[in-house]
Amino acid sequence: MTGLTMTRRALGAGLAAAAVVRPAFAKSATELTARKASVQLAPEGYPATEVWSYDGSIPGPMIRAPQGARLQRRLVNALDVSTSVHWHGIRIDNAMDGVAGLTQSPVAPGASFDYDFTLPDAGTYWYHAHTNSMEQVARGLSGPLIVDEADAPDVDRDEVLMLDDWLIDPETGGFMEPFAHPMMMSHGGRTGNLVGVNGRFDFALTAQRHERLRLRLINAANARIFVLRLQGMAGWTVALDGMPLRAPETVEGEIVLAPAQRVDLIVDVTAEEGSPAGLLMSQDDDSWVALADMTVSGSRARVARPAPAALPPNPRTDLPDLAQARQVEMAMEGGAMAGMESALFEGERLGFRELVSRGQFWALAGQVGRSDTPFASLSRGETVRLRLSNDTVFPHAMHLHGMHFRELRGDGSLGPLRDTILSLPQEPLEIAFVADNPGKWLFHCHMLAHAASGMTTWIEVA
Ligand SMILES: [Cu+2]
After folding, report:
1. Spacing, Cα 62 to ligand 1 middle (Å)
2. Prediction pTM value
């Protein structure tokens, strides 16, 4: 790939015209139309990109509603292919979860589907396609979903930053194909050559010194793990994957955001006027570049303010009772360089080479992809301990639909509630959750090329 590099820094300062871009608020109509659109993702001078979008924008329109509200959106499919919408992280009515082939039929071209559900939890969520998501999300079908607390924290501004990357042919501006690329599927997944925030490679913010911001970061990328650092800002992590931490935690060092994960920060702008500030990201060579620049001018107040209070807790977030928990095990296997011998696929036991010839590379608990029967059938209200052993050489962002879980740490303590956890090679981890939401729920890797080539299973709660 030549001519198009990962970040604005390498594109030359002349291209980096600062602009404050925020996702547009959803219009009052309740339709959400999946359709093609032409969007200038790459810098001026490169061709525009034909994307698949919600309502014509990258990212899709910001959907924002108060906690406890009912959300209604009619998905209108104006694409040439079937699609569906998953409302990531919402502890949702199963029929509204958007997983084609499991919770609903795919919505055919020209057809529509009415999503209608309540929003039990405040926090930072997102929505994205869940039909052939490896391709549809990469083409742009995602957007932010923000659920507001009745008592919002005291901040000067609330900014949603949807982090993404795109793999674009610089000659044509089109997405590089194929999406089902064996090398990407069997390795780290589809990683873009253009990185941006809210659809802009040159996303920038303006702020005043001592201004207090709530930054809601969403990783919408197919496979990229963002490693971030604050520059000219200091603050606290107040929520992960939508769910408030019991107490704000000071941001020290790096913020790691795996695909589909979110983090809510409350930060104070500490930079002097004109000093560098913003969000930095680590590159492959361990250098740091600006992902989002912040221009600091003026001063909001003379002194920094005290630490923020915790966000109000969401309902049904009690610690699980581990004494009665059911223990289940799941080996994560496959991919390049890991020596998976065989696994079950569509009812047959196949050797790795045979699986590869069918475009499959990964297995969860010995099963490649979704089978007819769930990985686990759980009784409603039951507590589950799921031990994951990552026997691959790649990291995976494991996402459970319908319920949040906590990591059971080595010292016996329970981590914060999450819906997506980063699993590192040869580092077993264990999660625990209360199976309190009835239905059929996916559990899959959110490196979407992995999910599409075997790393998808499901559980049933009845
Ligand atoms: Cu994976």
Report:
1. 27
2. 0.93
